[in-house]
Design brief:
single chain; mainly alpha; rod-shaped; 3 helices
Length: about 90
C-alpha cells in the first residue's frame, strides 16, 4: 500500500468506529457530530505521524563515509602505486 493513503485509512477506520458507537449508544446528533469531528482530526494527525515514521523506517540511505577516511585510502593507494613503480 502506498504510504500516502495511511492517514486516510486510519482516519476512516476511527470515524467508522465512532459512528458505530454513537449509533449504538443513541447519542444526540449534534454531540455525535462534534465527537466525530474531534476524533477525525486527532486520528488524521496520528496518521500523518505514522506515515512519517513508516517512510523514515523504509527508506534506504547509504551510510556516509568520513572525508578523512577517504583521504587516507587515497594516500595509501598513492603510496602503493609509488612502491610498485620504484
Amino acid at each position: 500500500m502506498k504510504d500516502r493513503y495511511i492517514p486516510a485509512v486510519i482516519t476512516l477506520i476511527a470515524g467508522a468506529v465512532v459512528s458505530g458507537l454513537n449509533i449504538i449508544n443513541k447519542v444526540e446528533m449534534l454531540a455525535g457530530l462534534k465527537r466525530l469531528l474531534l476524533v477525525l482530526l486527532i486520528f488524521y494527525v496520528i496518521g500523518l505521524i505514522a506515515r512519517a515514521i513508516i517512510k523514515k523506517a523504509t527508506t534506504k540511505t547509504p551510510p556516509k563515509e568520513n572525508k578523512g577516511t577517504e583521504e587516507l585510502q587515497e594516500e595509501k593507494l598513492g603510496e602503493s602505486v609509488k612502491s610498485s613503480k620504484g
